[in-house]
Specification:
By secondary structure, the protein is of the alpha/beta class. It has two domains: 154 residues; 167 residues, no CATH class. The protein has eleven helices and six strands. Strands 1-2-3-4-6-5 form a six-stranded mixed β-sheet, with helices on one face. The longest helix is centred in the first third of the chain and has 27 residues. The N and C termini lie far apart (56 Å).
Length: 340
């Protein structure tokens, strides 16, 4: 094809993508304030999110309302952050949308309930992996996934809502919930919205670490710390070009005070992590059979026996992307040895 024709076709595709983004942005920019439910909670609806909040009582949110639309700014800012995070994770990079997960049925909403500290046990946010009735008068079969957010949190300075939403993506993709994977990867996912200085990462060192029992023992005990120990260096080491498109209108959305939702347009390792998460959805099936689980109980989701399957999935994904060295791609050590 001639160069001029290629350029013209590319330009038409780019224009189509731009206008589709504008249409999507127009939908996202709209919201609907729903009347209070039987618990006295109002809801700010920006599909698929409903932010449920109180204006009086123990769990009342601040009534600050800069734009005067009768929706507390904190509630609007939570919804805006979630809309941007959903667009980045699911629309741009193709992470599996939890509302489409075969692990659930009749899911219609991600319900974000804003509570005082008394309901969060010291946390800023919580994500629950079981679905609940959505209390939708127009759809009695509808269900929702639940997130709790602390009412004292300022979304303009804290990306806990996006962090908890990523947990729902994880919950829809795989049953594994071992903390070093679950919290560590979600902490990495915050890079979608905040500035994170690139870290020095050497793939050969990571390869060796992922096969070192002493290092793995430290990793398995690390929880949130696994982000700096593994997930962030891994995202850098795969060396992907995963910058966000600066001309996407959704990515230029602002909070109620006019400050931008995104701190930068860099999101290292997103495509790799998306593929890994899908692979983990297959690995948990193998774990279920081999470990003799009767159900995915809370105990089984956190069982240390899952660790080996997660590490094996990481190594397999690295091998499939040809990031591993040829030596490490050889089946010299059966990965089944990683399982207890």
């Amino acid at each position: 094809m001639e160069t001029g024709k290629v350029f013209a076709l590319t330009r038409r595709i780019s224009l189509c993508a731009f206008f589709l983004a504008l249409i999507l942005w127009a939908d996202i920019a709209q919201g609907e304030l729903l009347p209070p439910d039987r618990y006295g909670r109002s809801a700010w609806l920006k599909p698929p999110f409903r932010v449920l909040f109180n204006v009086a009582g123990e769990h009342a949110v601040s009534d600050t309302d800069i734009n005067g639309n009768n929706v507390p700014d904190m509630v609007e800012d939570i919804a805006t952050q979630l809309q941007v995070a959903h667009h980045i994770f699911c629309n741009i990079f193709g992470f599996p949308d939890p509302l489409d997960s075969p692990r659930y049925s009749n899911l219609k909403y991600i319900d974000v309930r804003v509570f005082s500290a008394s309901r969060l046990s010291g946390a800023h946010g919580l994500a629950f992996d079981a679905s609940s009735p959505a209390a939708d008068p127009e759809d009695l079969q509808a269900r929702s996934l639940i997130i709790y957010i602390l009412r004292d949190l300022d979304p303009k300075r804290n990306v806990t809502p996006a962090h908890e939403y990523f947990h729902q993506i994880q919950n829809g993709a795989t049953y594994f919930k071992n903390s070093w994977y679950y919290e560590g990867m979600a902490r990495w996912a915050e890079d979608a919205l905040v500035i994170r200085a690139p870290v020095s990462a050497d793939m050969q060192d990571l390869e060796e670490s992922l096969r070192d029992e002493a290092w793995l023992d430290v990793l398995y005990k690390s929880g949130y710390g696994a982000a700096r120990l593994l997930w962030i260096p891994l995202a850098e080491a795969v060396n992907e070009d995963t910058n966000l498109p600066r001309d996407d209108p959704i990515l230029n959305m602002t909070y109620t005070d006019g400050s931008p939702v995104l701190s930068d347009f860099r999101f290292a390792g997103a495509r790799f992590m998306r593929s890994l998460l899908i692979r983990l959805g297959q690995a948990d099936q193998q774990a279920f059979v081999e470990q003799g689980y009767q159900s995915w109980s809370t105990q089984n989701r956190h069982d240390p026996a899952n660790n080996g399957y997660i590490i094996e999935a990481i190594l397999e994904e690295l091998g499939s992307t040809d990031v591993l060295s040829p030596l490490c791609r050889l089946p010299a050590m059966p990965l089944g040895q990683l399982h207890p």
